[in-house]
Sequence to fold (89 residues):
Amino acid sequence: MPNIKSSIKRVRKAEAKTSQNKARRSELKTTIRNYNEGLISNSENKEELLKIAIKKLDKAASKKLIHKNKASRKKSQLMKAYNTAQVSE
Fold:
């Protein structure tokens, strides 16, 4: 633990940010998991779940929680799965 006052504050702020980022990342993963489960179970609201998942990915990328290319790649994967499910219906 640092002795300097500003360093102590920096450590405190870093811990707070880390816990916020961890919660947001967990929420993002949960949203994507809910979409995938909805897709597998062929639920009625899969289009709505897709929109929510894409919105969360964009938000995470804009907050630099994940890299913008990762968000783009995930959105592409979600859309591909959605389109495959639409064709198989």
User: Anything to note?
Assistant: The first helix runs from residue 5 to 40. The two ends are 59 Å apart (CA to CA). The mean pLDDT is 95.
